Amino acid sequence: MRFFNFHLMPYPALPKDYDGPAWVTCPNELFDPDVGHQVYNRYLDELIYSEELGFDGVCVNEHHQNAYGLMPSPNLMAAILARQTSRVKIAVVGNALPLYDPPTRVAEEFAMIDNISGGRLIAGFVVGGGPEYYSFSINPAHAREKFQEAHDIIIKAWTEPGPQEYIGKHYRLRFLNTWPRPVQKPHPEVWIPGVGSLETMEFVAKHRYAYMGIPYFHISVFDRQFRLFREACEKEGYTYDPKQAGWLVPTYVAETDEQAREQYEEHFWYFVKRLLPGISIQPPGYTTLRSMENIAKGAGTFAMSLNTWDEVEEGVYAVVGSPQTVYEKLEANISKLGTGNLLGLFQLGTLPADLTKRSMELFAQEVMPRLRERFPEGKPILEPSEAVAS
Known about the structure:
Helix content is about 45%, strand content about 15%. It is α/β, with parallel strands linked by helices. It has a single domain, classed as TIM Barrel. Helix 11 (about 325-335) packs across helix 12. The radius of gyration is 20 Å and the shape is globular.
């Protein structure tokens, strides 16, 4: 079992009278650079502190033109983390490959991070969220095939001698000869997140990469997604390794259940009601019909439909409580999902620095050791009944 601190780097200061989307068309005049200066440095401090607390890794990710996550270039953040840490894995989850032309830029920057860190990069590749295709005015109908072609270019750049020529449908490279090359051989570990696309699961299973479940849905949606991913691995002729699956979930720990809810709830609702609107934009052609049908099964459970804290608790949209409560909830759900990576979202919305830090400390000191003992390295995670059912 591996534990990661996943950070969105959200904007915590949207005006109270702004009720529009946080994506694509959210006016950039609402961004205050003084706030940006403060939170960028604070958020980096929280990620760096994760190493001291004993986390296995930290995660950053890419989004554009939004208040939800202030990382249009997660590689900049990863480069800082590579220099200011010495042990933790640094997961960029991930670069949106169709937004890079040519995608050799991703190969170069990821290789730089891997060299600076001494081989600690986890390379995340994503198709990119629906809103990004509006922000970049890119034809979404080509998203999947551009992603796959860009992926092939990057892997070639890392694993095959150059210079060589690459001629594809979307990219033509006379000299594919990337400098530098990554430390890790044959290449860094690859993670690909998803929200239910069958093509994504099949692609990940085929290449034996790791599939990361995106949060903000009812826990039953994750149960189905990871079952489908395990089935995709079986169709490729092998049984999945728990390290090939990761569950991303908002997490908050306080001394008691009552304190946890009192301290956390208002910040959760800022996130859900102010920062999520606009995230679910799906441009025509972005998703295939077969995947749209699968995604639609869980669409009605997306977090923006939440109205009460009881719904949050019932659907495990966040794991909140005392160390004992948080342990019990995580243990029960990890046993069912079979995920060997837990990606805790310890800061979200307007959650202040002191509460974020204290929650991380309680998790690291009182929850994480127990989960490591419960799910030891190299042992199956799925409960026997779940393993049979899959």
